[in-house]
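Researcher: Re-running this chain for the archive, since the previous output was lost when a drive failed. Same request as before.
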Amino acid sequence: MEKIYQQYYTKSNEIVSYMLNKLAIRENSVILEPCAGDGVFVDALLQKESNIKIEAFELNINEANNLKKKYYTKPNVSIVNEDTLLYNDFISNKGKNRYDFIIANPPYGAWQDYDKRNILKEIYPNLYIKETYTTFLYLCISLLKEGGRLVFITPDTYLNLHMHTFLRKYILQNTSIEEISIFNSSFFPGVNFGYSKLAIITLVKNRNIINNLNNKIKIISGFKEPADLLSTTNARITYIEQNDIIQNENHAFIYSDDEYLNDLLRFPSIRIGDIADCVTGIYTGDDRRFIKVKDHSVKNSKNYEIISDNELCINTVPDLNGYDKVLYVPIIKGGNTRYLKNDFWYINWSKESVQFYKTNRKSRFQNSQFYFKQGLAVPMVSSNSITASLINNRIIDQSIVGVFPRNEEYILFLLAFFNTSICTKLLRSINPSANNSANYIKKIPIIIPDYNTIVHINTLIEIIFSLKKVDGDYTSIEKELDNIFNVIFYENRDKNISKRLQNELFAI
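Model: Regenerated structure tokens:
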């Protein structure tokens, strides 16, 4: 579909069946479909119950005309070719408490021109209006009657991302959430978001805030295929009170199917942000002009110039203000590499270039106090697991989160931690999307073990360094580190949570 609409039609029979079952419509009801598309939900609603009234909105005039032809003989179906988010009756009191049921697959990330953005900001001042689906969700909750039911399928990003804090609080206080089912976007034929999963939320409008906060949400995950939505036998089910969620920082849906990790996430004694600075790096404003690459075998390097030996800065003390002549220094860009990362990219560090980075409106000469320092490079976008490598006194670009421990003795210990499965599990519980921004990394709980345990971990990391330099196999050492951190986090778990004590795990 065109970017302006950004519609992904619900072509999965299993998803449609699941959503209709959760909606649980009854006869003589008034139902809203706020973004009808080709009418897949309207068809399913009519098959489920014929004695209902459906109001279907569709912005795309061609689709709206097709719907009018399709339901010409159905007097109980009205098609409205309007922008739901700007429809006058909806944004005035006329639209409030109007519908018994609402079902939708709203557009995700549809482009809004700047004039429309300004209008939406005035109407929905507390929402992140660049993301269309969340605005639909907020509006439609206000359109429900008391006791009315809503079922939406959307990306799951609103459950955790900071920009949706207001929306989460609104939902938690004004509705009782019955169920949230989370699954891969690939369940939609022809759709696969790399940045998030999809979530189907079922909720009931409720003005009683106390009842809402005492409500337990059923969160279902672990689906293998669309058919699993119709039977949760093999799925993972977690229950969490809305009151617990609203007490989380930014009211985020921080949860895990592991009850202990849930407690650790909600009541950590120490977070990464307590012991380390987490920052993003530089943006030149014009990377192809100022950055060069080692050779074109490097991923995504096709349009970059290859660095020559006489341009490299060698044996020169790093200078934040740049050098008198054109010299290039190593910069770490994105890409998931564990422990050690070779020099592949180089940034122009002449005084003239540095001045450009500082003054150009597109450039970001940010967090410069951490340039040329030792720390950890964590790619901001990762796929299956979090990774980290040593910065080794290089510069990081904006695709990297730099983690700089305030106590240097923790550098190798944290390097090991960020490459373990439990770190990935904790971060994905805080933010299930592939975006590992600095603000989320700061929230990861960490348990600092005894001195001898840290020494043992550091020794294993040094062995990995030696093996990486000769292309040796270090998988057994990684497994040992994974086991050690499982012991750190799970051994004496009652002490970790209740008494906040640190464990003497490997003390001699």
